[in-house]
Amino acid sequence: MTDLPSTETLILERDGGWLTVWLNRPAARNALSAAMADELAATVAALAGDPSIRGVTFRGKGDMFCAGGDLKDFGALLRDDVPRADIVEFSRRAGALFHAVDTLPQVTVMLVHGAAMAGGLGLVCAGDIVIAAADARFALTETMLGIPPAQIAPFVVQRAGRAAARRIMLTGARFDGGEALRLGIADQLADDVAGLEAAEAAVRAAVRRCAPGANAVTKNIVLAAGRLDGSALRDLAADGFAECLLGEEGREGVAAFLEKRKPRWAV
């Protein structure tokens, strides 16, 4: 079991093999400050090497999930003494964070209430499963501020497809949970917080029926599907299949099926 980092802008709650990551800047609408982004990056890096954690839920304290990037940080970048290279690196770090969340070996759940705006919506789109309140609000407002949703765009395209991503990014469109479901940004809707938590509990139960190593390899194959050609993808999938079948989980899963019992990870 890996030690998780100490945090000031996050609350980390471990429940057996599941971790809940609370964005905890409610007075600032859980805006992604530089400090929060650094703490998220450190937490995700620790999780990537911790096989004792089966799944991770991201959610926000207070009235909303996340209002996006903290504009105070953006304003600080506009000082005359800030080199352009520092601004480029600031953006690259944001992209690295979204990529790290996207590629976590654990199953990730985004539990959205209130609103997920700009970078908050980017974080949502990096998750595996998105459960949103029906009245939650979504928007990508960057172009209205004169900047592109630079590091967010690939994850919105990945979730919603290119045509929908163009429309919502180029118009700053605002939409609710129902539209998010139609676009494929949300996977499931709930009427209130209790409904969100009930839906998340069902996801946890389903994930616990699946072997964690097999889930991690499956995520790797899914993510590779958009960047590898047919032969390379088949090789990756074949290697992953062999690794799992010959490993402890594959042997246990086949034995459990033949012996008509639950495998050890599902008990």
Secondary structure tally, helices: 11
Report how far the terminal alpha carbons are from each other.
19 Å
Strand content of the residues, in percent? Answer: 15-25%
Mean pLDDT: 95
Count every beta strand, where a strand is a DSSP E run of 2 or more residues: 9
Low-pLDDT residue intervals, each spanning 5 or more residues = none
Topology pattern, helix = H, strand = E:
EEHEHHEEHEEHHEHEHHHH
Instruction: Give the biggest sheet.
Output: 6 strands, mixed
Structural class computed from helices and strand pairing:
alpha/beta
Strand arrangement, major sheet: 1-2-3-4-6-9
Rg over CA atoms: 19 Å
What is the helical fraction, as a range of percent? 40-55%
Write the layout of secondary structure elements.
Blueprint: E1 10-15, E2 18-23, H1 34-48, E3 55-60, H2 71-76, H3 84-102, E4 107-112, E5 115-117, H4 119-125, E6 129-133, E7 137-139, H5 153-160, H6 162-171, E8 174-176, H7 177-183, E9 188-190, H8 193-208, H9 212-224, H10 230-246, H11 248-258
Helix pairs in contact: 1-3, 4-5, 5-6, 9-10
